[in-house]
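Appendix B. Chain record.
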Amino acid sequence: MSDATSNANAIDAPTPEKGLAAADAKGPVLAADGTPLRKSLRRALRAQKLRALMLIAPLLIFVLITFIAPILDMLFRSVENQIVSDTLPRTAQVLPEWDSASGEPPSEAVYEAFYYDLFAAVEARQHTRLGQRLNYENTGMSSLFRGTGRDLDDFREAQVEYIEDFAPEWEEAEFWVSFMGGEGGEALLDSRRDVVLALMDESQRGPIGTLWCATFAACEPAPGSIDIGYTPSAEVAELLPRTAEAYADFALITVLEEEDAIAEEEPWEAVYVALAQDLAETPEAELAAFSGPQAQALVDLKAGLADVETQSFRDFFEEADDDWLMIGPWRTIQTYLPDYTTGYFLNAADMQKTPDGPEFRPENERIYGLLLQRTMFLSLTITFSCILLGYPVAYLLSNLPMRTANLLMILVLLPFWTSLLVRTSAWKVMLQQQGVINDVLVWLGLVGDGSRLVMINNQFGTIVAMTHILLPFMILPMYSVMSTIPPSYVRAAKSLGATNWTTFWRVYFPQSVPGIGAGSILVFILSIGYYITPEIVGGTTGTFISNRIAYHISSSLNWGLAAALGSILLIVVLVLYWAYDKIVGIDNVKLGG
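C-alpha cells predicted for this chain:
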C-alpha cells in the first residue's frame, strides 16, 4: 500500500476532504440552518461523544468509587502520619529543637507543651489512638499514654484548689464564659478550632476523605458554621495567652465532642494550671491595667499563688512514669512528628526509621521479606500445578462432541456452586493425619499407622487446597482458546507425515499458548492475594503475606502497615505483569475468538 492511500489529500481522485477544501476556497459551506458546515459537524461530533460518555458514566463512577478510590486511599494511608502532629500540635513546634543525640531528656518547654496537648487529647478521647500508633514503632508507648492520661488531673492540684477556693465564682461555668469572652479574639478561636477539628476528626485526612466528605456531607461541618457559645476576648488573649488557648480548647471539645454547653461545665484543670502560669509570668502592673471587672482579683490571685507549692512539668511526668525521662519515647515522637512518613514502608521491608536514618531490624524480627518470598513461590507453584492439571482437561473438553463437553463442563463449574469456606474445610478434613487420605493410605498398606503423612498446616496443604479452588480459572480460558483451534490444522500436519507428538508440539500447542497465558495471569493474581484458604490449611509455614495484611487490618489495626504491604504487593504484581508483557506479549493473551 502506497503512502497516497493513507493521506486523503494525496489521492488524485475526488474525495470529500478535497470537496470541502475547494468549497471553502470559494466560500464557507453552509448547513441547512445556515451554520458553517465544519462548525455544524464539530458540534454534532461533540454531541455524539457526550452521549457516549453519558452512557458509560454510571459504570465509570461505580469503578471510580469501588475500585480506584480504595486503591488511592490505600496508597495514601501507607505514608499518612498526621495523627501525631494533629494530636500534639504544641509539642510538634518545640520538640524538633531537641537534640536526641545529646542523651538528655527534652527541656521544660517540651514537657509543658506536651502537658497541654495530652490533656486536650485525653478529653477528646484520642490519646489512646496516638499511643497505639506510636506503639507500632516502640513497644510500651500505648500503656505509657494510657497511664499518664489518668494522672493529668492531679498536676499542680494545690494551685487548682487555691483558685477554686479563691472566690465562689471561680468555680462557676457562667463566670468563666463572661470572664474569657469579649470581642476581637476570633483569630484565636479559628486557629484553635482548626487544631481541635484535626485532633477529633480523622475522616477528612487525605484526598479520598476530603472527596468523601464533600460528596456525601458525612463529616464535621465547616469550621465557620460552628457556634460554641462565646467569642474570646482579645484583651484576655493578650494578657493570659495560655489560659485563652486552654479555655478555647475546653470550649470546642465540650461542644463538639461531649455535645454540652460551656455555660454548664466547669473548665478543665488545665485551664486553672494555665491561669496560674500566666499570672506568675505577667507583671502586676499589666494585671492592674486590665480593663475587665476582675483586674484586682487577678492581682490578688497572683499574690496568693506565689505562696502555693508548685511542681515542674518534667517532675510531674517523671512522677507519672519515669519512662518520660528516657530518650526512647521522645525519640519516637520526634521521629514520627512529620505529617508523612516512610516508616510503614520501611517496616514492610523489615527495616525501621531511626533519627540516624533507616536500618534493618534484628534478624529475629524480619518476617515480611520471608513472607513475600513464600507468597511468590507458592503462587507460582500453584499456577504451574493448575497448568499441569488443567491443560489435559481443557484439551479433552475442546476435542469432545459439544453435547458431551457441555456435560463435563458442569463438573468443572460445580465448585463455583459450593462455598469457598466449605471447600477449604473439606480439604482440612481430608488432609489431616486422621483424615480420609491418610486412612486410605494406611488401609492400602502404603503408609504405616504410626507414620501418617503430615499434609495439613504446611505449604503442601496450601498448594493442594488452592490448586483445587483455582483450577477452574485455568481451565476456562484454556478451553475457550482451544475450542477455536481448527481441527483441520492437526489433520493437515498428520497428512504431511508428522507424528502425534510433533503435531501437538509444533502445531496445536503454540496456538493454545494464549489460553495458558490468560489462565496463568488470572490464577497467579488471584492466588497472590488469597488469605482465607492459607489461614485455614497453611499453618505457620503455608500462609501468605495477604494473611499478615488481614491481621493488621482486623486485629492489630495497624492500617498504615497493612496499606504499605498492600502497596508493595500491588507494585510486585504490576512489575511481573510488565515483565510478562515484555517476554511473552500481552497481545498474545486471549480468551478465545
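Further analysis of this model is presented in Appendix C.
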